[in-house]
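Reviewer 2 asked us to include a model.

Predict the structure of this chain.
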Amino acid sequence: MNMKLVKKFLTVTLAAAMFVMPITAAAATTDSSEAPATRYDAPVTTEAVATVNTSTSTVAGVGATQVAGVYILRTIKGIAVRANDATISAAGANLAAGEKVFVKAYELTAKTSPAVFASFQGAANSVGGVVVAALNIDFGKLAGKNFSRLAAGVTAPVTIGVPANAPAGKTLAIVKVAPGGATEILPDQDTNPATVSFNITGGLYGYAIIAY
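Predicted model (structure tokens):
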């Protein structure tokens, strides 16, 4: 995907009190030649989500995500939402005609989001673990060009690929951080050491892979 083209058109909402420093939605690429500051650290403003060609994401052994979205990854090896629009709608999203589920997922770093990373690390420390990688997942819907968040009671199963830097032989889990900083440790729902499976919740939350 052409980085300049996407930077020209893609703007996303990252308004949440816990995410102190917003992240640039620059390009769905894992090209390590791009400096992290170029792709992740500059602030952006929001609204024209529907004007870009959305990216897709695939997890080895699981397949491609089943919902539209923008998936911006550097170390995480793919994000696959394992439920389609009809299933998510029936589970509480109650999509109206012309609406579709939409996910915005972006990796976080301690530099860009020190407050939420402190929450991740505190939860990891409580079980003697370390933070492997982290991301925002903004789980909502599109009606035309208008993005809105789904209610917190709406969930969907997700699998993400574990980065290569994850320590071997450890138990993997997810730390979920809500706006305001409350944390929850979610157990891995699969037995594959290369992936972590869990449920995302409607709205914008931080999620970190931890190993302990």
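The chain has four helices and twelve strands. The two ends are 36 Å apart (CA to CA). We have added this to the supplementary material.
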